[in-house]
């Protein structure tokens, strides 16, 4: 008499089904044990190292390799059963899809983790990190497209016509969207070359303002007068950009004139007074102060100094303070500023001479 375990259902004995199911349960228990015990210890060892490679490998193992290994074991166990041709084909296609899915996920995970790790080591700002995440979406999309094409090809479909169509369609799209693609490539130039960042005060041509947002197609600036300026990225990479925030020091050059009634001793005092005033101010680097020329209305002096600050408001405050002190000290010493004047002399004649 046929035993219970030898009873055949759909071409396989109950014992065969039981062994396959037991293998699946055992594989699940082993993986659970690995995650709960072994991997925790490995994670502790990895945390003590300074390299990034082991962190990436461990996260890929935990998130993708172990789940895929479990599915692969189940697939191999199911292969031990006598299955119909149709079911075997379905399992093969499903396993191919699963394999490609996890392979693409691992590739994208390694790309994302590696690039973001490099950005963190360079102490990039949080905004730059979010900006990079947007750019990585395009790269991940290309990886997915490539993986899908390989999958379709491995399943026995002819992808040559599809790839040729993509090439022709890509050329057509590129020709129709040259401006958009130009702005997109300019976005990557701005991102990697970093001519400016969020918060920088820049001037491009006759436009100036503070960077508020750097997008894939356009960059938005807040002008000094308050309105928002939206500029294509391609224009920003073509023109000369003056980045005031990265200005280590600001040069200040000005000239003043004193009247011709100024005495010689006072003329000698003028450069000394100006140098002393400038040197007394914080964040200033005095360069020179000289009598430069004899003008139409007075004697001209040229002064040059530098303000060691990127802040334009601070620069203006220091300049205002210097001008004020010059005015006060000149007034105290009786030195008069020159201004355009004209003196008329009348010649009188006496009758009889």
Low-confidence stretches: none
Computed over alpha carbons, the radius of gyration is 39 Å
Query: How many β-strand stretches?
Result: 10
Count every helix, treating DSSP H or I runs of 4 or more residues as helices.
9
Tell me about the biggest sheet?
5 strands, antiparallel
> What is the structural class?
alpha+beta
Shape by Cα distribution: elongated
The percent of residues in helical segments reads 55-70%
Instruction: Give the domain tally.
Output: 3
Measured between the Cα atoms of the first and last residue, the distance is: 166 Å
Order of helices and strands: EEHHHHHHEEEEHEEHEEH
The average pLDDT is 80
- Strand numbers in spatial order across the main sheet: 6-5-4-3-7
Strand residue content: 15-25%
Account of the protein in words:
This protein has 3 domains: 150 residues, no CATH class; 58 residues, SH3 type barrels (Roll); 84 residues, Alpha-Beta Plaits (2-Layer Sandwich). Helices cover 58% and strands 17% of the residues. The strands form 3 sheets. A 5-stranded antiparallel sheet has the order 6-5-4-3-7. A 3-stranded antiparallel sheet has the order 8-10-9. The protein has a two-stranded antiparallel sheet with strand order 1-2. Helix 1 packs antiparallel against helix 2, helix 2 runs antiparallel to helix 3 and helix 3 runs antiparallel to helix 4. The chain is elongated and about 150 Å long.
């Amino acid at each position: 008499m046929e035993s219970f375990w030898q009873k055949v259902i759909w071409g396989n004995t109950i014992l065969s089904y039981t062994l396959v199911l037991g293998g699946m349960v055992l594989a699940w228990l082993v993986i659970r044990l690995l995650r709960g015990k072994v991997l925790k210890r490995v994670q502790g060892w990895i945390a003590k190292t300074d390299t990034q490679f082991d962190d990436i490998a461990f996260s890929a193992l935990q998130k993708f390799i172990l789940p895929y290994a479990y599915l692969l074991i189940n697939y191999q166990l199911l292969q031990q059963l006598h299955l119909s041709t149709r079911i075997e084909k379905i399992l093969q296609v499903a396993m191919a899809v699963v394999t490609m899915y996890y392979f693409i996920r691992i590739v994208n995970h390694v790309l994302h983790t590696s690039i973001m790790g490099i950005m963190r080591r360079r102490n990039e700002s949080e905004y730059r990190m979010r900006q990079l995440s947007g750019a990585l979406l395009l790269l991940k999309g290309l990886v997915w497209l490539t993986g899908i094409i390989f999958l379709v090809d491995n399943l026995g479909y002819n992808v040559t016509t599809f790839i040729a169509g993509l090439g022709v369609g890509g050329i057509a799209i590129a020709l129709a969207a040259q401006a958009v693609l130009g702005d997109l490539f300019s976005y990557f130039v701005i991102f990697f070359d970093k001519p400016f960042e969020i918060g920088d005060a820049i001037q491009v041509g006759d436009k100036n303002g503070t960077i508020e947002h750097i997008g894939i197609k356009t960059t938005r600036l807040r002008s000094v007068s308050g309105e928002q300026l939206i500029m294509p990225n391609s224009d920003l990479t073509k023109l000369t950009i003056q980045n005031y925030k990265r200005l280590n020091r600001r040069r200040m050059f000005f000239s003043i004139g004193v009247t011709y009634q100024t005495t010689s001793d006072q003329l000698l005092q003028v450069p000394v007074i100006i140098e002393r005033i400038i040197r007394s101010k914080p964040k200033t680097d005095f360069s020179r102060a000289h009598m430069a020329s004899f003008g139409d209305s007075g004697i001209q002096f040229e002064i040059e100094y530098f303000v060691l600050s990127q802040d334009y408001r601070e620069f203006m405050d220091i300049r205002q303070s210097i001008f004020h002190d010059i005015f006060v000290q000149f007034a105290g010493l009786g030195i008069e500023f020159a201004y355009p004047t004209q003196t008329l002399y009348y010649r009188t004649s006496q009758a009889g001479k």
